[in-house]
C-alpha cells in the first residue's frame, strides 16, 4: 500500500467511529518531521487534541438548523407566489393568443411575398404548403 493512502485510510476510519463521548485524538510529529493524527498517545513528541462530542457523519440537521431551513423554504415559497401573482396581474387576458396570431400573420405575409417574387420549382411546393398551413391556423384560432 502506498504511504500516501495510510493517512487517508486513518482519516476515513476516524470519521466512521461514532461515539457519544469526546474523541481523543493525538497529533504526533514523526522522526522524519511528518505529522500524523492517531487515537493512541504518541511515543515521542505529541499533543492531545480535544475534538468535542463526536457525531456520526450521517447525522441529520440539528433542531435549530431544521427550523431555520423551514423558515428559508417558507420564505422562498412566499416569494415565488408573490412573483407569480405579480406576473399574472400584468398579463392581459388573451394577450398570448393575440401575439401568436400576429406572428402567424407576419409569417403568412413573408411566404406570400416569396410566392409573388418568384421561386424555383423545388421550393414552390413547400412555400404553398406553408402558406396553406398558416391560413388554416389563422382561420381556426384567430378572429
Strand content: 5-15%
What is the number of beta strands?
A: 3
Number of spatially distinct domains: 3
What's the story with the biggest beta sheet?
3 strands, antiparallel
Structural class: alpha+beta
The helix tally amounts to: 4
Q: What is the average of the pLDDT values? A: 79
What does this 3D model show about the protein?
The termini are far apart. This protein has 143 residues and is α+β, with helices and mostly antiparallel strands. The chain has helices spanning 5-16, 63-90, 95-117, 121-141; strands at residues 22-29, 35-38, 46-53. It folds into three domains: 5-53, no CATH class; 60-90; 96-143. The chain has four helices and three strands. α3 (95-117) packs antiparallel against α4.
Quick structural overview:
The chain has 143 residues and is of the alpha+beta class. It has 3 domains: 5-53, no CATH class; 60-90; 96-143. It is 59% helix and 14% strand.
Topology at a glance:
Elements: H1 5-16, E1 22-29, E2 35-38, E3 46-53, H2 63-90, H3 95-117, H4 121-141
Antiparallel strand pairs: 1-2, 1-3
Describe the structure using short key phrases:
4 helices; alpha+beta; 143 residues; three-stranded antiparallel beta sheet; 3 domains
